[in-house]
Structure formats: C-alpha cells, structure tokens
Write a structure and sequence with these properties.
It is a single chain. About 35% of the residues lie in helices and about 15% in strands. The chain is of the alpha/beta class. Helix 1 packs parallel to helix 3, helix 6 (about 160-175) runs parallel beside helix 14 and helix 16 (about 380-390) crosses helix 17. The radius of gyration is 23 Å and the shape is globular. This is Capsular polysaccharide export protein. Pfam families: Capsule_synth. InterPro entries: Capsule_polysaccharide_synth.
Length: about 425
C-alpha cells in the first residue's frame, strides 16, 4: 500500500513538473525514432543497450495523469515513429488505450524466464526480456502474446523446434540453470533428512507480487499454500522454500513462516532451485515460474492460480481457464515460452543472442559469481566481471574475452555501486 506521505509528496511535485514541462517544450527533432519508457526504474539503463537505434526517453516514475496529459501526450504524438513501452503495470493505466487510439506501437515489458545470476532486486541487468503487445504474461484475466503463441503455433508441424526444445531442456537440467542463479549448491540430504515417504516442496512467492494479484482469483498466502499441501498429503514430508528475495531481505513477507513451522521443514538458506527439487515427488505453488521448472523435471505440479504453464494438460489446476483448449507436451510448452516468446541479449558484448548462447553465457557468469562471492553481490555484474578478468590473460573463455573487448556504457550520474 502506498503511504499517505508518499502520495502527498508526489502531489506537491506535480504542479512544478507540469509547469516545467510546458515551459521546456522543445520543438520535435528528427533523429532516431523515440522510444518512450513508462514505469521503468531509474537503474534500468540497460534499455539504451537493448535499443541503440532508438532515442530512449525515460518518463518519471510515479507520473500523475495530469502530467501525462499535459507533458507527455504531445511529445509522443509529435513523432509518427514513436513507440511506447511500460514495465509491467507501473505505467499509467490509460497508456495502452491512448496508444491504441493513436496507432502507436505499445508493449508491456518484463524479465524473461532465464534472467541473470543475481536477483533483479539487486539491480542486476537481465539477459532476457519479454515484450507483450496484449498484456503481461502472468495476467490470467485475458489473452497475452505468450498465450496466443501456445494456443496457435503449429508445434506438430515444426519438428526442428521441438528437437531444439528437447536439447535445450536437457542443457538447462544438466547445468541447473534457473531464472535466478545465485542460490547455493548444498547437499539437500542434510537439509531434508532421510526420505521415509512422499516428499512435497512448497514454493513460496513474494506475496505482493503482481503475478499473484493478476494470476490468482483467490488471495492465497504462502502459509495457505503450506497448509493446503499438508492437508492434502497426510503423512508426507512438507518442505517450504521461501522466495529468494524474502530470504535476502529485499522483500517483506506478508505471512509469518513461524506459524507453519510445526507442519513443515522451512529452508532458511537460499539454496539453488535445481538442488531443492532433488528427491521431491510433488510441488505446490500459486503462480511461480518454479512450477514450470518442476514440470521440466517430470514432477507433479499443483497450481492454485493460473500461471502461463497451467491449463495445457500438464498440471493439477485449481483455477482452470476455458481459453486454453489444446494439450501441449512439455517440449512444446518450453518452445513457446522460452524460444519463441522472449528476446535474449548479451549485456557484455551488447548484442542480441539466441537462447543457446544465453545459457552458455549464464553458465560462465554463474562461475564468475562463485569465484567473486560477496564482491559480486555488492557491485553491478559488469563491473565485477571487468575487475575479475580484465588483467588475467589466463582466462580465455568467451565471456572473459568479451569483457576485455567491450566497454561498459554508463550514463552520467549512473552509479557503479548498488545503493544499500
């Protein structure tokens, strides 16, 4: 919930921003086509690298409707080449309809499903992004570009794509890569103890996350999920894995895990997702991507909400949707969500890559993270890699060579060190 003091502070700024916008209106310039970004945090300057042929224009966060009407509509309309993007739903609600009425290309933007080593909350640049013209992929209330791909693509007639997806799944499983890849590799046998029967893994989420708000009709908490798994599986061992952002303190839990400690084993350490799946028989989640990663490993998955991977005949769905009418194999679902839908980008070489290259790059980045340890969690990834390999000529991996041959682009006043 937004604090009243924050609302008052933003309201106080609004007249000055409006007046300043009117006074400083420049004449339209003919350079690169403008790309207007709404709802993007100030640190997401990686968009300059993703779109070097565009004039990137960051709108202020916390923009009020009157500011948009007075300061921004005319700027967007002044160039017929303009395009608009919004980070999740952090742009103005009327932005999409405004663009539709004026035939302006519009996309929602969100992190892809193979993102980075460290968390986005630590301001780590993403290696993949999803761009969706219809809606956010996690919104179960209507169609999205991802859902359209999964509903209409001729997977049966695209044998090469299915073979590619199969090989990619095997590669992901062998490397243990996930969306985030900073979790520790530990011996789960020591954490879980001897296996005496059925073992259930409950995947916690950041409970204020938009994927729950828009992907689940019912408002479940992580504790609700644990209690349901316990109720439906008498005698089973219930293991609860809180979200990495909760464990690292960058997100506040809305439910107290201590209230369910008597019915489950709580993982207090941020262990890697691939390790946490070992010896598990069944996974419970609300809408987490981790449920899809469990499907890749052949595990049974129960979803309380309606994530993008449910409704295709592969999950135990507690919130069915009548829009998803076809059955898909795991390879077809992976091909749509990981190959056809997102874009991949090398943040060191600053060029678009395919998913195969993205996986290789993340493997090397994770290895660098392991070597650098805590240093990497306190500085931007590119700074740490440059420091680590810049003077070490013995490192001849593609990533190391790319770091040496690339200069990290920074804007004036862009900090190299993450704020505490």
């Amino acid at each position: 919930m937004v604090k009243a003091t924050t609302i008052l502070a933003e309201a106080a700024k609004t007249p000055f921003r409006v007046i300043g916008g009117i006074v400083s209106r420049p004449l339209p310039k003919r350079g690169n086509p403008p790309l207007f970004l709404f709802g993007f945090a100030a640190w997401k300057t990686f968009m300059y690298d993703w779109f070097p042929d565009r004039e990137i224009v960051f709108a202020p966060t916390g923009l009020w409707p009157i500011e948009f009407d007075i300061n921004w509509k005319w700027r967007i309309l002044s160039d017929r080449r303009a395009e608009v993007m919004a980070w999740q739903y952090k742009g103005l609600p009327q932005l999409k309809n405004f663009c539709a009425r004026n035939n302006i290309p519009f996309h929602y933007v969100e992190d892809g499903f193979i993102r980075s080593v460290s968390l986005g909350a630590l301001e780590t640049p993403p290696i993949s992004l999803a761009f969706d013209r219809q809606d956010m992929y996690f919104n179960a209330n209507g169609p999205t570009d991802l859902e359209t791909i999964l509903s209409t693509h001729d997977f049966d007639g695209d044998g090469d794509l299915q073979l590619r997806a199969k090989a990619l799944i095997e590669k992901l499983l062998s490397t243990g890569l996930s969306k985030y890849n900073s979790g520790a590799d530990v011996a789960v046998e020591e954490l879980y103890g001897p296996k005496a029967g059925k073992r259930i893994l409950v995947i916690g989420q950041v409970e204020r996350d938009a994927s729950i708000a828009y992907g689940s009709r019912e408002k479940y908490s992580n504790n609700d999920l644990v209690r349901l798994a316990y109720k439906e599986n008498p005698g089973a061992q219930i293991i609860y894995k809180p979200h990495p952002e909760v464990l690292q303190g960058t997100a506040e839990p809305m439910s107290d895990p201590n209230l369910v400690r008597d019915i489950c084993t709580i993982l207090e350490e941020n262990i890697s997702l691939s390790e946490s799946f070992r010896t598990i028989d069944h996974v419970y989640t609300i809408t987490s991507l981790s449920g899809f990663e469990a499907l890749l490993r052949g595990l049974k998955v129960t979803t309380l909400g309606c994530p993008f991977y449910s409704g295709w005949g592969l999950t135990d769905d507690r919130q069915p949707t009548n829009r998803r009418k076809r059955k898909l194999t795991i390879e077809q679902l992976f091909a749509g969500a990981y190959v056809l839908y997102p874009k991949y980008f090398d943040p060191v070489a600053k060029e678009y890559i395919d998913i195969e290259q993205a996986i290789e790059l993340l493997v090397e980045m994770r290895a660098a993270y392991t070597v650098l340890g805590k240093d990497l969690s306190n500085v931007h990834l590119m700074d740490a890699l440059t420091k680590a390999v810049g003077d070490d000529v013995s490192l001849q991996t593609p990533l190391a060579n790319s770091v040496r041959g690339s200069r990290v682009r920074r804007l004036p006043n862009e900090p190299s060190v993450r704020a505490p």
